[in-house]
Here is the input.
Amino acid sequence: MHIELTEETLKMLNSSDEERIKYINQEYWIDYPIAQNILKKMEDIYNFGYGKTRYISILLVGGSNNGKTSLLKQFLEKHPPYDYNIEGEQPEWITDEFFDKYTGIGRPVLYAISPTEPSESRLYSIILEQLNIPYKTRDSLDVKAKLVEYYLRALNVRVLIIDEIHNILNGSPARQKQIMSAIRDLSSKLTMPVILAGVKEALRAVNTEDQISSRYRPEYLTKWKMDKDYISLLATTISKLPLKNNPLFSIRTMHKRFLSYATDILVRS
Here is the structure.
Protein backbone atom coordinates (compact mmCIF):
# COMPACT_ATOMS: atom_id res chain seq x y z
CA MET A 1 0.00 0.00 0.00
CA HIS A 2 1.48 3.32 -1.08
CA ILE A 3 0.53 6.55 0.70
CA GLU A 4 1.45 9.91 -0.79
CA LEU A 5 1.93 12.82 1.58
CA THR A 6 0.04 16.02 0.84
CA GLU A 7 2.01 18.89 -0.71
CA GLU A 8 1.82 20.88 2.51
CA THR A 9 3.03 17.89 4.54
CA LEU A 10 5.96 17.27 2.17
CA LYS A 11 7.12 20.85 2.76
CA MET A 12 7.21 20.16 6.51
CA LEU A 13 9.47 17.08 6.31
CA ASN A 14 12.68 19.08 6.65
CA SER A 15 11.36 21.30 9.43
CA SER A 16 12.52 21.03 13.01
CA ASP A 17 10.96 18.50 15.38
CA GLU A 18 9.18 21.31 17.23
CA GLU A 19 7.67 22.67 14.01
CA ARG A 20 6.56 19.23 12.84
CA ILE A 21 4.98 18.45 16.24
CA LYS A 22 3.11 21.77 16.12
CA TYR A 23 1.94 20.96 12.58
CA ILE A 24 0.73 17.49 13.60
CA ASN A 25 -1.19 18.89 16.57
CA GLN A 26 -3.13 21.46 14.57
CA GLU A 27 -6.84 20.86 14.00
CA TYR A 28 -7.97 19.65 10.58
CA TRP A 29 -10.94 17.87 9.10
CA ILE A 30 -10.79 14.38 7.58
CA ASP A 31 -13.72 13.33 5.45
CA TYR A 32 -15.09 9.82 5.78
CA PRO A 33 -18.24 8.19 4.34
CA ILE A 34 -20.50 8.29 7.42
CA ALA A 35 -19.63 11.94 8.06
CA GLN A 36 -20.16 12.82 4.39
CA ASN A 37 -23.61 11.22 4.47
CA ILE A 38 -24.65 13.07 7.64
CA LEU A 39 -23.26 16.38 6.39
CA LYS A 40 -25.28 15.97 3.19
CA LYS A 41 -28.45 15.48 5.25
CA MET A 42 -27.61 18.58 7.26
CA GLU A 43 -27.18 20.51 4.02
CA ASP A 44 -30.60 19.28 2.87
CA ILE A 45 -32.10 20.57 6.12
CA TYR A 46 -30.33 23.91 5.64
CA ASN A 47 -31.40 24.29 2.00
CA PHE A 48 -34.93 22.90 2.14
CA GLY A 49 -36.07 22.86 5.77
CA TYR A 50 -36.20 26.54 6.67
CA GLY A 51 -39.61 28.14 6.19
CA LYS A 52 -41.46 24.82 6.09
CA THR A 53 -44.36 24.32 8.50
CA ARG A 54 -43.10 20.86 9.37
CA TYR A 55 -39.72 19.40 8.48
CA ILE A 56 -37.98 16.38 9.93
CA SER A 57 -34.92 17.48 11.92
CA ILE A 58 -31.90 15.41 12.97
CA LEU A 59 -30.77 13.80 16.21
CA LEU A 60 -27.06 13.00 15.87
CA VAL A 61 -26.15 10.10 18.15
CA GLY A 62 -22.67 8.80 18.93
CA GLY A 63 -20.44 7.64 21.74
CA SER A 64 -18.60 10.08 23.96
CA ASN A 65 -15.63 11.67 22.10
CA ASN A 66 -16.73 10.03 18.85
CA GLY A 67 -16.40 13.12 16.65
CA LYS A 68 -19.94 14.56 16.88
CA THR A 69 -18.82 18.06 17.77
CA SER A 70 -16.12 18.07 15.09
CA LEU A 71 -18.74 17.14 12.51
CA LEU A 72 -21.10 19.86 13.71
CA LYS A 73 -18.33 22.45 13.60
CA GLN A 74 -17.49 21.39 10.06
CA PHE A 75 -21.10 22.16 9.14
CA LEU A 76 -20.82 25.50 10.96
CA GLU A 77 -17.73 26.45 8.96
CA LYS A 78 -19.68 25.96 5.74
CA HIS A 79 -22.21 28.57 6.86
CA PRO A 80 -20.29 31.38 8.61
CA PRO A 81 -21.84 34.62 9.89
CA TYR A 82 -22.08 37.51 7.43
CA ASP A 83 -22.53 41.28 7.46
CA TYR A 84 -23.86 42.78 4.24
CA ASN A 85 -23.71 46.27 5.75
CA ILE A 86 -19.95 46.33 5.29
CA GLU A 87 -19.03 48.12 2.09
CA GLY A 88 -17.64 45.75 -0.51
CA GLU A 89 -19.08 42.64 1.15
CA GLN A 90 -22.49 42.58 -0.57
CA PRO A 91 -23.21 39.87 -3.13
CA GLU A 92 -24.60 41.05 -6.48
CA TRP A 93 -28.13 39.98 -5.59
CA ILE A 94 -28.28 42.31 -2.55
CA THR A 95 -30.47 45.33 -3.37
CA ASP A 96 -31.84 48.25 -1.36
CA GLU A 97 -35.12 46.35 -1.07
CA PHE A 98 -33.29 43.59 0.79
CA PHE A 99 -32.57 45.93 3.70
CA ASP A 100 -36.24 46.97 3.80
CA LYS A 101 -37.18 43.38 4.64
CA TYR A 102 -34.15 41.92 6.38
CA THR A 103 -31.20 42.85 8.56
CA GLY A 104 -27.88 42.80 6.75
CA ILE A 105 -26.29 40.77 9.55
CA GLY A 106 -26.83 37.04 9.72
CA ARG A 107 -25.96 33.88 11.61
CA PRO A 108 -27.15 31.14 9.23
CA VAL A 109 -26.36 28.37 11.71
CA LEU A 110 -26.32 28.85 15.47
CA TYR A 111 -24.50 26.39 17.74
CA ALA A 112 -25.30 26.06 21.45
CA ILE A 113 -24.65 23.49 24.17
CA SER A 114 -27.54 22.20 26.26
CA PRO A 115 -27.38 23.47 29.87
CA THR A 116 -25.88 21.07 32.40
CA GLU A 117 -28.41 22.32 34.93
CA PRO A 118 -31.57 21.83 32.89
CA SER A 119 -34.03 24.69 32.80
CA GLU A 120 -35.89 26.48 30.05
CA SER A 121 -34.59 29.82 31.32
CA ARG A 122 -30.96 28.64 31.21
CA LEU A 123 -31.44 27.32 27.66
CA TYR A 124 -32.65 30.76 26.53
CA SER A 125 -29.73 32.41 28.33
CA ILE A 126 -27.22 30.18 26.52
CA ILE A 127 -28.78 30.98 23.14
CA LEU A 128 -28.70 34.73 23.87
CA GLU A 129 -25.05 34.46 24.94
CA GLN A 130 -24.17 32.68 21.69
CA LEU A 131 -25.86 35.51 19.79
CA ASN A 132 -23.98 38.12 21.90
CA ILE A 133 -27.29 39.66 22.93
CA PRO A 134 -27.34 41.47 26.31
CA TYR A 135 -29.97 40.33 28.78
CA LYS A 136 -30.63 40.42 32.51
CA THR A 137 -30.26 37.22 34.50
CA ARG A 138 -33.37 38.11 36.45
CA ASP A 139 -35.47 38.57 33.28
CA SER A 140 -38.63 36.50 33.31
CA LEU A 141 -38.95 33.37 31.22
CA ASP A 142 -41.38 35.15 28.90
CA VAL A 143 -38.99 38.07 28.32
CA LYS A 144 -36.08 35.74 27.50
CA ALA A 145 -38.26 33.65 25.18
CA LYS A 146 -39.34 36.75 23.25
CA LEU A 147 -35.73 37.99 23.01
CA VAL A 148 -34.61 34.62 21.64
CA GLU A 149 -37.43 34.50 19.09
CA TYR A 150 -36.82 38.08 17.98
CA TYR A 151 -33.07 37.74 17.46
CA LEU A 152 -33.18 34.30 15.86
CA ARG A 153 -35.54 35.81 13.30
CA ALA A 154 -33.70 39.14 12.98
CA LEU A 155 -30.35 37.39 12.44
CA ASN A 156 -31.79 35.03 9.84
CA VAL A 157 -30.88 31.84 11.72
CA ARG A 158 -31.86 28.99 9.41
CA VAL A 159 -30.72 26.05 11.55
CA LEU A 160 -30.33 25.80 15.33
CA ILE A 161 -27.86 23.21 16.68
CA ILE A 162 -28.05 22.09 20.30
CA ASP A 163 -25.19 19.82 21.31
CA GLU A 164 -24.99 17.58 24.40
CA ILE A 165 -28.79 17.34 24.52
CA HIS A 166 -28.47 14.38 26.91
CA ASN A 167 -27.63 16.99 29.59
CA ILE A 168 -31.35 17.54 30.09
CA LEU A 169 -31.53 14.08 31.71
CA ASN A 170 -29.92 15.69 34.77
CA GLY A 171 -33.30 17.29 35.43
CA SER A 172 -36.65 15.90 36.47
CA PRO A 173 -39.02 14.45 33.83
CA ALA A 174 -41.04 17.67 34.07
CA ARG A 175 -37.92 19.81 33.39
CA GLN A 176 -36.92 17.54 30.48
CA LYS A 177 -40.33 17.95 28.90
CA GLN A 178 -40.25 21.73 29.40
CA ILE A 179 -36.92 22.07 27.58
CA MET A 180 -37.89 19.79 24.70
CA SER A 181 -41.21 21.61 24.37
CA ALA A 182 -39.37 24.96 24.29
CA ILE A 183 -37.13 23.70 21.47
CA ARG A 184 -40.17 22.38 19.59
CA ASP A 185 -41.99 25.70 19.98
CA LEU A 186 -38.97 27.68 18.74
CA SER A 187 -38.73 25.43 15.70
CA SER A 188 -42.46 25.77 14.98
CA LYS A 189 -42.77 29.52 15.50
CA LEU A 190 -39.71 30.33 13.40
CA THR A 191 -40.23 27.47 10.90
CA MET A 192 -36.60 26.62 11.62
CA PRO A 193 -35.19 23.07 11.63
CA VAL A 194 -33.16 21.94 14.64
CA ILE A 195 -30.19 19.58 14.89
CA LEU A 196 -29.75 17.89 18.27
CA ALA A 197 -26.65 15.89 19.19
CA GLY A 198 -25.65 13.69 22.09
CA VAL A 199 -24.66 10.25 23.33
CA LYS A 200 -27.06 7.31 23.08
CA GLU A 201 -28.98 8.55 26.13
CA ALA A 202 -30.08 11.44 23.92
CA LEU A 203 -32.62 9.06 22.40
CA ARG A 204 -34.29 8.87 25.80
CA ALA A 205 -34.11 12.66 26.19
CA VAL A 206 -35.95 13.21 22.93
CA ASN A 207 -38.62 10.62 23.69
CA THR A 208 -40.43 12.84 26.19
CA GLU A 209 -43.55 12.64 24.03
CA ASP A 210 -44.52 11.37 20.57
CA GLN A 211 -45.11 14.87 19.20
CA ILE A 212 -41.46 15.70 19.93
CA SER A 213 -39.72 12.41 19.09
CA SER A 214 -41.46 12.22 15.70
CA ARG A 215 -39.69 15.40 14.65
CA TYR A 216 -36.17 13.97 14.91
CA ARG A 217 -34.63 11.37 12.65
CA PRO A 218 -31.72 9.61 14.44
CA GLU A 219 -28.38 9.57 12.60
CA TYR A 220 -25.67 7.41 14.14
CA LEU A 221 -21.91 7.88 14.31
CA THR A 222 -20.97 4.24 14.79
CA LYS A 223 -17.76 2.86 16.29
CA TRP A 224 -14.95 2.15 13.88
CA LYS A 225 -14.22 -1.39 12.73
CA MET A 226 -11.52 -2.86 10.52
CA ASP A 227 -12.87 -2.25 7.02
CA LYS A 228 -12.00 -0.23 3.91
CA ASP A 229 -13.45 2.98 5.39
CA TYR A 230 -11.19 2.66 8.42
CA ILE A 231 -8.13 1.91 6.27
CA SER A 232 -9.00 4.95 4.15
CA LEU A 233 -9.21 7.07 7.30
CA LEU A 234 -5.78 5.88 8.44
CA ALA A 235 -4.26 6.48 5.03
CA THR A 236 -5.66 10.03 4.87
CA THR A 237 -4.47 10.74 8.41
CA ILE A 238 -0.96 9.47 7.69
CA SER A 239 -0.81 11.54 4.48
CA LYS A 240 -0.99 14.61 6.71
CA LEU A 241 1.75 13.53 9.11
CA PRO A 242 5.31 14.73 8.32
CA LEU A 243 6.99 11.58 9.68
CA LYS A 244 10.57 10.96 8.64
CA ASN A 245 10.29 7.18 9.07
CA ASN A 246 8.08 5.04 6.83
CA PRO A 247 4.51 5.28 8.24
CA LEU A 248 3.41 2.07 6.45
CA PHE A 249 4.94 0.13 9.33
CA SER A 250 2.23 1.58 11.53
CA ILE A 251 -0.61 0.36 9.31
CA ARG A 252 0.80 -3.15 8.87
CA THR A 253 1.75 -3.87 12.46
CA MET A 254 -0.27 -1.55 14.66
CA HIS A 255 -3.72 -1.35 13.03
CA LYS A 256 -5.46 -2.74 16.12
CA ARG A 257 -3.84 -0.14 18.32
CA PHE A 258 -4.81 2.55 15.84
CA LEU A 259 -8.37 1.25 15.85
CA SER A 260 -8.61 1.60 19.63
CA TYR A 261 -7.51 5.23 19.30
CA ALA A 262 -9.60 6.07 16.21
CA THR A 263 -11.88 8.15 18.39
CA ASP A 264 -8.99 10.35 19.48
CA ILE A 265 -7.99 10.88 15.86
CA LEU A 266 -11.49 12.04 15.02
CA VAL A 267 -11.77 14.32 18.03
CA ARG A 268 -8.54 16.08 17.16
CA SER A 269 -9.59 16.31 13.51
In short: The first strand starts at residue 57 and ends at 62.
